[in-house]
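Input:
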Amino acid sequence: MKKYFLTLSLAATAGMATAAPLKTANLSTVVNDVKVSKSSAAAVPASTGQTVDNSTTVLTGRKSRAELSFPDQTVTRIGANSVFRFGKTSRDLAIDKGSFLLQVPKNAGGAKIRTATVTAAITGTTTMIESSPSKWFKFIVIEGEAKLINQKGDEVVVFPGEMIVMEPNAKNFPRKIKINLKKLVATSKLMDEGTFGPLNQPAIALINEAISKQMDERRGGELLPSSVIIRGPDAPRLNPDGGGEGGNKSILESITGSKGFPDSSDAPKT
Amino acid sequence: MRSKIISYLLVGAAAANADILSSTQRFFDQGDEFTNYSEDESGRVDGFEVGEVPYSPADSDLGVQEVLVEREDVAPVIFRFSNAIFRTDNAAGNNFFGDEPSWISSSRASVTWRPHLINGWFADFGVAMDFLRFEDDSAIDYENYSGRAGIYKNFPDLDDTVFFARFEYQSLNTGSLFDSNYDAQRIRLGLQKTLYAASRQRMTAGLSAAYEWAANPDRLQRDEIEVNLTYRYAFCDDVYTLVTVDVSRFDYQDFGREDLSYGLGLEVAWEMTKNLRVSASVTYDKNDSNSPLGANDFQSWTGGVGLGCQVAF
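Output:
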């Protein structure tokens, strides 16, 4: 099981030398059951305004959320049932499991995301990540872009409105999937201003720009609705949900109808 | 005197016979596929077939991920063929004195093509042929030919409401390929919208109005207002059920005739492969007409199984 656990690290890229290290953060939002654990000590309830450092692990329980604000205005929002740790190097952030929103400002010096199978380079991006141990890893770019690199050295650039869904131990990148950004942002609890407050203004402007660009593509018929929609059991909805979804198939198996993952030989490379 | 009364009754009964449309229209949709403008017709995601997607608890935090597909450079031409065996308690026919149950053999072939025109406007071309053969000798075997040519557009700013406009042609023959017993030309305008979509569920509503400017025979020229509701639930990736409700009001241009037609359908389908589909369905149809003596009133139950295939080029 352990081998499937994803560890995401954020490390500075070219501009990292001058970027502020992500060694401390302020717990700017704490909702419901949020705990912190220092080194190997037992977890204790966290409180809003608490400062955490690189020896701290942040854990959220059911229907719980937290936000970490870093000195360079990098923001990490942590969803329910998640485990977050600082990484080993100056700007490392480690994610064991759960859902996260990462907003790295354009001028923060960039970052690099590492997992057991994927490394992602970010230069000012708002992304959402889901890590389900032994099930799948999901990476969504809301604005900006991210370059993912796997262990074979294959690369794929993920742009706004694109999503990568893959098994944690996948050898190849799957094809990128386009998703409706406007709907995602409107229904995301990690983007909920009522819970977290707004992201910083430049990020909001860039997100709106990305949504606007995708809306233009949709208006022009370049992007079309499909029959596939992925929503959680508690996702905000306009209509009553009968629920009852489930099944044992992996998400990508379900999407592709294939037992195996699509070979990414035609995946864009840079 | 007695023979005169009998003559009047016979003439009256003959005059009250159901017309060809009322006799056959309850079978028009058998084996038909729901015309869905609200999503990409091929059901593909980046070239792969689309199945239903289970949620993960974290999706509640991430938000609703509605998958979009990129428009293909060349729209596929989709051929569909189906054969079905049905049983009905009211076969097509003009028997005024009672409903006749019958087995039905139904064959259908259709072709659709929806190329992009400009700025999100798509063309919609389609032709279909239905051949219905009834086991009951008194029933009317017939062929239904239909064609459409139109345009449609999805409006993302209106919460993905789809507008469509199309020309429709329909011709009914009873046994001869070239002698039409009925034909009509009409323009249909409509809206379609997905009201609700989740991983395994989708509900789509439609509203349309059709103006018919020519029909043969003239007395069957009619305008239509239609509302429909379709609910799809996928039990698993390959098996789903479809519930359809359809209500149409027909306004005939002669004699102030008005019909209100209801249809209710339940279908369970198994998509055995990308191209092959087996289905079982049951439909209930009812028509209330203000025609004298209820000549064009009917109701029927029809159920059966079918096998269909789809090929895209």
